[in-house]
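thread from #wetlab-drylab

HS: before we spend reagent money on co-crystallization trials with oxa(dethia)-CoA, can we at least see a predicted complex? here's what I'd submit
DV: go for it
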Amino acid sequence: MSKITAAITAVNGYVPDYVLTNHELETMVDTNDEWITTRTGIKERRILKGEGLATSDMAVPAVEGLLKKRGITAEEIDLIIFCTTTPDMPFPATANVLAHKIGAKNAWGYDLQAACSGFIFGLTTGAQFIETGKHKKVLVVGGDKMSSIINYEDRATCIIFGDGCGCALLEPNTEGYGILDTVMKSDGAGAQLLFQKAGGSMHPASHATVDAKEHFAYQEGQAVFKFAVTNMADVAAEVLERNNLVGDDIAWLVPHQANKRIIDATANRIGLTPEKVIVNIERYGNTTNGTIPLCLWEWESKFKKGDNLILAAFGGGFTWGSIYLKWAY
Ligand code: UT7
């Protein structure tokens, strides 16, 4: 019997309508469009507005669109892995909330927390259930309502993040397409350089934690930048090397959209020309778990069957990793 690989067979995405531009941010904090554009590459980001709307509310249209594209029903999904740093609630898992909303009655599911690397950790995890033959349809969702944990008085973070959600369906393939190699890494030494201090068991919510603004994302930008720029490039290079690939063999780099300078450094390191590098950071900013699936969704029509894709991400934790996959359709 030929080896089973996990192939992406459909992708989709959703971004909220509200556009928060650099110019609007100029009216909120001491910043300017020129600084944001040159330091990050971001021009605007989307914000989910509306009382009570949560991450799962972006996932529903994304997943329903995916099911329609693939021509399957929600009941056919075996497993939902919901990669998010901004779950609807601390518990139950947003995967469960989503399953209920879309009618995925036969699926089990769980949330995966790996900050900005969540979606590639989720693909890697989901692929195992396909490769073993345990499941036939695994839905990996990556999405965040970052605006729910951003302090719009902190110019170091509020200019970077946005809201959005994407998803991919994994199915078995026996012709050599799909996820062919993954390298995933974690290092808790970086935990306090990019984190949300309160709201967990160490610092449960209290008047004091709210007053100290500890429920917002905090980032030591420069320190994170140094780790990100080296590690994301290193891990992408490692995946190429161990598969005897060079830049010319790669059709597309699908990088996490944290900072255009980090994306450029990764592309340079693995010898890719700019037209092979997927970038939408200027329109969406950093949607954390949403960046990579939103890129796949927006570039889907350009991919050809057999294209070699390299996915790479770096995020809080620290977490980072890279995936080599052969596009299946
Ligand atoms: O996605 C998960 C992983 N996260 C990342 O990969 C993000 C990594 N970090 C970054 O992308 C960058 O560090 C930032 C975009 C966050 C910041 O860019 P930077 O080039 O590292 O700027 P910096 O923090 O070194 O700040 C440079 C200057 C400072 O002023 P002084 O001290 O030189 O006078 C800041 O106070 O820019 C100032 N500054 C700003 N100015 C205008 C910081 N934020 C802003 C701002 N607008 N929004």
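DV: DSSP finds eleven helices and 13 strands in the chain.
HS: ok that's useful, forwarding to the group
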